[in-house]
């Protein structure tokens, strides 16, 4: 039985084998092409491959890669070390899969990879911490649901008058701030901060055109600390001051 934790370099030489213990392979650097029971995936940073006991698997890395590998002892070891996490961990390990780590889980993997894992105490305790964290949940690759953008947009619109931070939006989705930011950019083409800024200005412009509310009150309603800051932001985005924007509908009516 190999050590519980080890760092392994992979290259273009393909490895094809199976073993009588469960293995977890965490990407650290580069990209590892992995195939388990005929199902292919690519493992890189923040991803891991679950290799169940006796599963035939193959891997190679054209440009080289570095991975943290966890070779797990038997189920009795898991039950003894993991306590109430053992059943969840066992279910996760029963099937071959490629999984995506949360930001916190990835930090733990990075920390362990830089630790003296040749020390048996550190290796065992590190593996226990990692398994307990994984048992709380990982995201299967290729089964990702889209972000609930309607709910996110509604939340932003309801709270335009108040400070809005990315972590408030991430909390709606159950994702870490880093993962939410990455997903939001991929799905909308804008960062969360940019989207919030544009929603503030859009709503401010609508209030200027459709109401006679004072500009200072509108600025407050859409989250600006001062009328001058709101005016400057509006002018940069639309090329017009609030006064000009308010006058435009009247000018068109007269024309």
Tell me the layout of helices and strands.
Layout: E1 5-10, E2 15-17, E3 23-30, E4 32-36, E5 39-43, E6 47-51, E7 57-60, E8 65-71, H1 75-82, H2 86-93, E9 97-100, H3 103-113, H4 120-135, E10 139-140, H5 149-158, H6 166-173, H7 177-188, H8 192-210, H9 215-221, H10 227-238, H11 242-254
Antiparallel strand pairs: 1-8, 2-7, 3-6, 3-8, 4-5, 4-7, 6-9, 9-10
Word description of this protein:
By secondary structure, the chain is α+β, with helices and mostly antiparallel strands. It has eleven helices and ten strands. Helix content is 49%, strand content 19%. The protein has a six-stranded antiparallel β-sheet. Strand 4 and strand 5 (39-43) form a beta hairpin. Helix 3 (103-113) packs antiparallel against helix 4 and helix 8 crosses helix 11. The N and C termini lie far apart (86 Å). The mean pLDDT is 89.
Jot down its keywords.
single chain; 255 residues; alpha+beta; Jelly Rolls; Arc Repressor Mutant, subunit A; 2 domains; 6-stranded antiparallel β-sheet; 4-stranded antiparallel β-sheet; 49% helix
Biggest sheet layout: 6 strands, antiparallel
Quote the average pLDDT.
Answer: 89
Helix content percent band: 40-55%
Helix count?
A: 11
Computed Rg: 26 Å
Strand content: 15-25%
Distance between the termini: 86 Å
Uncertain runs: none
CATH classification class of the largest domain: Mainly Beta
Strand ordering within the main sheet? 1-8-3-6-9-10
The SS-based structural class is alpha+beta
Number of strands: 10
N-to-C SSE series? Answer: EEEEEEEEHHEHHEHHHHHHH
CATH topology of the largest domain: Jelly Rolls
In the residues, how many domains can be counted? 2
CATH architecture of the largest domain: Sandwich
Shape: elongated
Function: Regulatory protein of the TOL plasmid xyl operons. XylS activates the xylXYZLTEGFJQKIH operon required for the degradation of toluene, m-xylene and p-xylene.
Keywords: DNA-binding, Transcription, Transcription regulation
Protein name: AraC family transcriptional regulator
GO molecular function: DNA-binding transcription factor activity; sequence-specific DNA binding
């Amino acid at each position: 039985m190999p050590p519980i934790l080890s760092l392994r370099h992979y290259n273009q030489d393909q490895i094809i084998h199976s073993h009588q213990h469960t293995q977890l392979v965490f990407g650290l650097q580069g990209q590892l092409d992995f195939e388990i029971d005929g199902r292919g995936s690519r493992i890189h940073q923040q991803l891991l491959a679950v290799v169940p006991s006796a599963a035939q698997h193959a891997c190679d890395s054209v440009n080289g890669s570095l991975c943290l590998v966890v070779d797990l002892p038997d189920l009795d070891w898991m039950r003894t070390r993991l306590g109430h996490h053992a059943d969840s961990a066992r279910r996760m390990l029963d099937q071959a899969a490629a999984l995506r780590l949360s930001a916190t889980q990835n930090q733990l993997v990075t920390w362990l990879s830089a630790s003296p894992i040749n020390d048996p105490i550190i290796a065992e305790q590190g593996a226990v911490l990692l398994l307990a964290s994984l048992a709380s949940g990982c995201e299967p690759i290729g089964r990702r649901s889209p972000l609930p953008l309607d709910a996110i947009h509604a939340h932003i619109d309801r709270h335009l008058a108040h400070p809005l931070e990315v972590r408030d939006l991430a909390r709606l989705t159950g994702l870490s701030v880093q993962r939410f930011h990455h997903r939001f950019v991929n799905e909308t083409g804008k960062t969360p901060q940019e989207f919030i800024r544009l929603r503030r200005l859009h709503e401010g412009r609508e209030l200027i055109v459709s109401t006679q509310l004072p500009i200072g009150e509108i600025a407050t309603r859409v989250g600006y600390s001062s009328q001058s800051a709101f005016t400057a932001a509006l002018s940069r985005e639309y090329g017009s001051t609030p006064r000009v924007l308010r006058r435009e509908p009247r000018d068109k009516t007269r024309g």
